[in-house]
Amino acid sequence: MPRRFLFLLGILILIAFQKTEAQNIVFDTIGNTILTADTIVKETKTPKAKTKKPHSPKKATIMSACLPGLGQVYNGKWWKVPIVYAGLGGLGYLVYNNNYEYRSYLHAYEYKTGDLPEGTTLNDHETELANRYAESQLQTYKESYRRDFEFYTILTIAWYGLNILDACVDGHLYDYDISDDLSFSIDPYRPFEQPIMIPQYAQVGLSFQLNF
Question: What is the pTM of this model?
Fold first, then answer.
């Protein structure tokens, strides 16, 4: 009697243990794989991937307005930065040089006409100009350098504005998807692809394809 009781008790314990293990097993019907309860808990605790912040054209515009070329860097167009500063540097030099020559000819002209303000002295360059040219010549050169100074000043401002506009446009086109499927091709005409039977002499030509 005790042996039968112990035997039945062992069978009941084994069945209860198997039921407990079966409850901790989940079948993945999609991949036909077995996932344990521990695996599910680990996958649940896995942190989600961070979403990428959207690119801001407004930010790129403001950055280029504050510092030329900075918006291009934000847009990933590093190669444009040397072009921006080369233009600003060249135009800036022309503005400075024409302004310097204009003031030099102005002082030389005022010295010739006796209108030089009191306390103002000529430097070596201005003295050389006053000795070399007549009043009419100094007047002509002075006005020429003044016009050039104003012209290159406007170009410098325009170049600065173009730098801002370029950053704004690139910012708007940053997420624009240019697919490789967008293409235009010219291929030989292949009659065997046509469902309608056409005489052989009428099956020679070219096909034009524009894919979007």
Answer: 0.60
